[in-house]
C-alpha cells in the first residue's frame, strides 16, 4: 500500500513540475510579446493559460484522491496540502500572464522603451522560476530568497508608476496607452506576489511552518 502511495506522490510531484513549466512558458511568452509587440507570442501565452487551467483541475483531483483513498503521514499531508495551495497560485500567474498578453494584442507597439517595466518583467520571471525550482529541489534557502526578492519587484513597481505619471504629464494624449501599461505593471506585481506565495508553501512543505503564521 505504501509503495503505491509513494508512486502516486512521485506522479503528483511530476504533474506539478509540468504545470510549473507551462507557467514559466506562458509568462515568458507574455513578457516577450510585451517587450517586442509580437501578437503571435501574445496569442501563444493565452493558449498556454488554457492548458494550465486543465492541469490545475487534474492535479486537484489527484490530491483529493490521495487524501481520501490513502492515510498520509504528517509529512505527506503537508506536501499534498502545499501542492493544493501552489496550483492555485500557479493558475493565477497563468491568468495574469494571459491578461498581459491580451493587453499587448491591442497595445500599439512594444513597451521596451520603459526601463523599469522591462526590469520588473525580468524580475518576476526570476521569482516564478526560482519558486518552482525551490519546490523541485526542496531548497529552503532558495524559497527564502524568493520571499525576500518580492521587495525588489515592489520597488520597481513604484518606480514604474512614477515613470508613467511623468509620461502622462508630458503627453496627455497618451493617457489611455499609459493606463494600459500601468495595468500590465500591476499584473507583474501580482505575479511576484503569487511567486512569493508558492515559495512560502514550499517552506511549509519542508518545515511545517508557514511564513504568515510568524509574521
Automatic annotation (TrEMBL):
Its main location: cytoplasm. GO terms for biological process: intracellular phosphate ion homeostasis; negative regulation of phosphate metabolic process; phosphate ion transport. The keyword Amino-acid biosynthesis does not apply. It comes from the Bacteria. One of its GO terms (cellular component) is cytoplasm. SUPFAM superfamilies: PhoU-like. The keyword ATP-binding does not apply. Keywords: Cytoplasm, Phosphate transport, Transport. Residues 18-104, 117-202 form the PhoU domain. It is found in: Cytoplasm. Belongs to the PhoU family. Plays a role in the regulation of phosphate uptake. Homodimer. PANTHER family: PHOSPHATE-SPECIFIC TRANSPORT SYSTEM ACCESSORY PROTEIN PHOU. This is Phosphate-specific transport system accessory protein PhoU. It comes from Agathobaculum faecis.
